[in-house]
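Protocol step 4 of 6: structure prediction from sequence.
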Amino acid sequence: MFFLANISQELTIDTEVRIKGNGKLEYWNLENGKVESVPQRKSRGYIITKLQFAPTASHLLILNEEAGTIHIPEKIKSTAWQVPISFYKVKRNDPNALTLD
């Protein structure tokens, strides 16, 4: 069992995690209880995966040695979205952007 955490309150960290051993790494989602596979590969006695830690985020990884060593390739993620400008409504309530009371 490996509990990894980002203790920074400001920085997002992208890192490669290397765990010595054999088997399959599983990601246990502590928010919803799901057990998920993570992209991983084996090299020189280590299981290697990449993780992203948002500020103060954590991950729980379990090394399932009974599952045997597997290779799960990394998925390429692409996220892009646009919100039409008509989605936002701007209304001027005061002549100054900052009202001091």
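Step 5 (inspection) to follow. The two ends are 54 Å apart (CA to CA).
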